[in-house]
Design brief:
The chain is mainly beta. The protein is about 15% helix and about 40% strand. This is Peptidase A2 domain-containing protein.
């Protein structure tokens, strides 16, 4: 008996990579639309338990600081250091044709990325990532959509 919940199967073909001639171990860095503004340098981080937006990104987007809610929350980084996220904000995030309101923790520190999308957003999107294929796939009412990494932006973030 087939499970009807698997009607939209997400799969990755061996040859379907961004640049087969140059295999890399790049991070998955994409572009998303956040509150109707195209935002580059969005890191997809399956190891992050939070969706993070940086304070300077909000300022560049022209988002009023009064929309940010005080919400002290410690974030533990890979190096073991703790960073405080002092605020949170809910913003509409569009990936392809799908829009989800996402709660971001706001961090006030320099970063190579504008946004880090972690497991809360990935799970809400029912998204599957492939670091080998450097893409993100997710189901929509019209089938499976794919967002490929931006190779230029990935290299800039890596060098920073």
């Amino acid at each position: 008996m087939q499970d009807s919940t698997c009607a939209n199967v997400i799969s990755f073909k061996e040859g379907a990579t961004v640049d087969r001639a140059k295999p890399r171990n790049d991070l998955l860095v994409i572009e998303l639309t956040i509150r109707d503004i195209d935002v580059a340098r969005v890191l997809i981080d399956t190891g992050s338990l939070a969706d993070i937006i940086f304070k300077d990104t909000l300022e560049k987007m022209g988002i009023d600081q009064f929309e940010i809610v005080k919400y002290p929350s410690p974030l533990l980084g890979l190096s073991g250091e703790t960073t405080m996220a002092y605020r949170s904000i809910n913003l509409a995030v569009r990936a392809g044709t799908v829009t989800r309101v996402t709660e971001f923790l706001v961090v006030d520190r320099p970063a190579s990325y504008n946004v880090i999308m972690g497991t809360p957003w990935l799970n809400a999107m029912r998204a599957i990532t492939s670091t080998y294929h450097l893409c993100l796939k997710f189901p929509t009412p019209n089938g499976i959509e794919v967002i490929w990494r931006n190779p230029r932006v990935s290299q800039v973030c890596y060098a920073a």
